[in-house]
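Re: duplicated header lines in exported structure tokens

Our pipeline writes sequence and tokens for each protein into one text file. With two proteins the header for the second block appears twice in some exports. Here is an export where it did not happen, for reference. First protein block:
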Amino acid sequence: MIKYLLFFLLIANFKAYAVDEYSKSLMQKGLSDLYTNTEAAEQSFKKLEVYALSRFDFNTFGQAVFYQAINDEDYFSFGADKEKLYRKAIDIFKFLDDKEWLSYTYLNFAGVLREVGEYIKSLEYLQLTRRIAEERKDYNLLFSVYNNLSLTYQAASNYNQAIIMANRYEKLIKEVQSDNREALAEAFHNKAEAYSGMGLLDSALYYHKKIFTLSLSEYILGEYLAKKGDVFAKKQMYDEAIKTIKQSLEINRKHNRDREMVKNYSKLGLYYALADSIDKSTIFWDSSYVLLSQIGDINLLTEYKKQKVEHYKNIGDAELAIEYSDAYYMIKDSLKNEKSALFIENLEEKYLEEKQINKRLQNELFTSKEQLAESQKNHRLYLTGALIILIFTIGLFVASFYKKEKKTFKIKALKEKAEEKNKHLSVRLKLSRELLEYVKSKLNGINAFTEKLKKEKPDLYQQIIPITSVYQDSVQSIRHKDWFINDKSLTALEFVDCIRDLKNSTEQFTGFKVNFREIIADKDKKLEPMTAIQMLSVFQEFISNSVKHSGGNKIDISVEQLTDSKINIQLSDNGIGFHPEKISAGHGLRDIESRLRQIKANWNWSSIQQYKGATLHINLHNVFIES
């Protein structure tokens, strides 16, 4: 009896050892191929996923799913399948209450969401990661969280918040790891990139210089030099930009960083062209393409095509810019098709792989007929389950494919409908332009006639001054409509000049005194066309109402820029005012509110001193066109 018991224990130990070794070998194989040979890595982790699930080893099962999710750095291929892998890994580690792996999954998922433009979701997962890091006092993880928060806010063009996150990152480093120069360089780099995005290039260069005071290794400095060169290029200091990129190139060449060298060559090609040195630009573009051909990285090729589009735009070759743009999107589409084909191929091979795994386990682990019979029984159950999973997976794929085709057809129909609307709109715009030109010509004729009367018959001219006032208002109104119809964008300075013209004409023809105060920092920035035209109409409506109905003699106008995208406006007069609860009774006031709704402004009316005088407060958001 004891002999049989010892024999059974020996068999069980051998079985557990073989299982553990097989699991380790799959994990090691997958990790060795991670990023470098994505197809082989994916196959290893899929085998490990199926195998771990069959052994009820949920921790290894979760890790296999996680590594499948992070295996591919190609963000163009991110879609429903990749998102499911991340969410599946999150659910597993939540179930296991494994905070460490859960935080890794959150952090990587947030990074991918940032790259595909899902900034709000990315920030949500980063906040979840931060809670875990603070709970576990994992400062290295907290460093990564603040770094990624800053990068995500940069990607979302919220540069002020990006700088705040970088400052917190820097403060945390100095508190807990003051000698961590690499992390401090990351914080400085994030500030430099944020200031560069805001157009504050001198501040960006200041933080780039601070990076080079940290005595970092040459290997790390290569990437920061390339970023510093980009800032010089934005300042149109192309000689300094080229010099800095060349320094980065030498470091990358020394350390055999081929991917970074391709980027360096492309940037040198771009900046030499901007410096009007086309011959040298061509040399570096060719060098980039030769090295890229040797590497054979399709993701790097898409970046190369994208930069080529920018290059041909800069030198004014529209035909080649379009050609490279088409190539860029063709490569992206081919990437998606390759992923779909590989997915189908893996489904077809899955059954054979699982069968081989089971056969190997049977030969190694079972030695007696009774155990073999039991194993065959388990094998049939496992095979049935695998077939069910396979059929279910294929069904999901078919459903996904059908849904995608249905969506494509719907998009095509919407596109055709939009094109038809655009045709009608273009006809209407043409007619509107012709009508405006006709009215302008008639108004110019009236102007010429009144000027002639002013010189030849001044007495008669005095009698038609009210007509002249109407003419001036009409000219201004038509000018504003002309800007809108022809899609012309006004700068903040031009917008202020229009208000001054309105002030001058009001004082000249109505006897009202108009006080105008403006504080605009970004006068060269262009305003959204709809916002500009509607606000100028609001000014006209308010002044017209005050002149006709208020019984006053003075109007105050204030325009003040509060932030990069926010402007505060206040209009007031010294007339009889109105009852705030009866504001809807006035047709002119309703027109003002209608225009403010169209541009999504915030406003409120007030009538002070027992309804003596009227004031309109307006807050405008997202006023300027993004550069």
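Second protein block, exported in the same file:
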Amino acid sequence: MKNIFLLIFLVVINNPLYSQFVMSKSTSDRIEGKLKKEILDKASLRCWYEFTQYCLNEGVKEQVVDTFTLDIGPKYSVYYDQNRIMRDSLDRAEGEKLRPRVKLIRQHMTKGEIDALRGQGGGNYRELLSKGETAVLYKDRKRQKATIIDGSITEMYKCMDEIPLQSWELKEDTMTILGYVSQKAETTFRGRRYVAWFTPDIPLQDGPWKLYGLPGLILKVLVDDGLFIFQAIGLQKLDSFPITMNKDQYVTTDRKQIRKLAFKKNNKRHFLGTDGTFSMSFEADKRIFDELERE
């Protein structure tokens, strides 16, 4: 039994016991992957980055590693978690198979029920901590703006962010990354110090996350002595691959609110499935993450 919240949500909204749940057409299209798309640009290069950060889990320092994809076009780039998108697509298909078997849905389990289930174990109980990043970041280098899209199945948010070109200080130091000689550069951005390595051999003035503006692709970034690390791990030439944005009913928000949304998504989910009955509950994530942006 697959323990993914998207599967449960698909079951819930399509179950007669929840007929009072009213879906808009955009929500329905979002769930089924049928939203129309706007083509912003055509990408010529894809770069994969390994992103490393640290958190405190009940006082113990832990390393968290994710892989992000950057597709770069002449005007726009898009930075996203490709693995998360692939998992969501598979979850939709699994949800369609699971729906007919569910006869009853309980929305919440008490703490006592959760503790009892943890104690007994078994194949029907699962705990899930969301993995991967749901936010998608579009960078418009010419207009010096970023658009962050994030949210859930029920509601999507759009944040427009002004990102003036960072003021980089070029250094003489070099290192080789993925076979490319890369030059060192430093800048300060929203309260943190960034040390980057870029390669003039790939003359695309872009990089991971909101970083850009060097005379070549940024392949590595250390933030505040390694608290955060972006490391290029692969490159692929693309043949006019479309950079698209869903035509959705977005709720406009700001950077502060979009960051709050990101922390909320890390809550732990508890699922129990027995004899066609699903029970689910939520528990706040105890991990404490630092934020890239201090300002």
